[in-house]
Amino acid sequence: MQNQRYEKKKVFALKRKKKHEEHVDEAWLLPYADILTLLLALFIVLFAASEVDSRKFLAISSSFNSELQGGTGVLENEAPVESIEPTKPLQDLKTEDPIEKDEIEILEKEDQEELEEFKKRIDRYIDEKGLSPKLKTELTSKGLMLTITEGVLFQSGKSDIVEQSRTIAKEISELLTTDTPRMIYIEGHTDNVPTGTMEFPSNWELSSARAITFMKILLENKELDPRKFSATGYSEYHPIASNDTKAGRAKNRRVEVLISPYQEETKD
Fold it and tell me: Is the pLDDT of residue 72 over 60?
């Protein structure tokens, strides 16, 4: 009897375990179905949203395009925005203003006349001191150029101004004094003969040193504004004559003083 009861319990336990296992195997269906439903819903929402935005974008784009091109708008009314021709640069508009253009021309003319008077004053000084042709002036598109040959200020291959020439440099500084200071550019130039010295390994150093030395002597005049001065060395690369002859090389060894027009300064 006991064996029969044990067998019945064993059979019942096996059936219960099998039923439980079958129930566990089917449990994954519910969350899987939920996930599929959520993904489907999300896809529908995203698809609907993209379609709506696309239609809105096309409608807005079409409306703006029609309005800006001078056609009819969404309400079939004439566009309030007229087609606009390309605007001209601000500088062109300024120069086309007759009043302003006349004022600029007047200022440029007065500036040119002042530079001409400046030139006459320096020329008188050159004639009085008998410095022609070692000193000469020329009105250029860049301004008034004063050219000083090497023999007036410097010995060959040197950057120190000859003592007797310091007076000339100081007198030139007085000629450069104006009520309204102008920009003054000091430029040093050499010929193409190599220097070959420890002090000046090349003509770059020599031309720069000469320009700076001359500028410093000019600025000993306290009436000149140092902020208006600059010094540059151009070495042998801006010749005004051929370096093939002795006379040409002598012309190329020079210091130039450029006095700038006021109008050029305002452009910068």
Answer: no
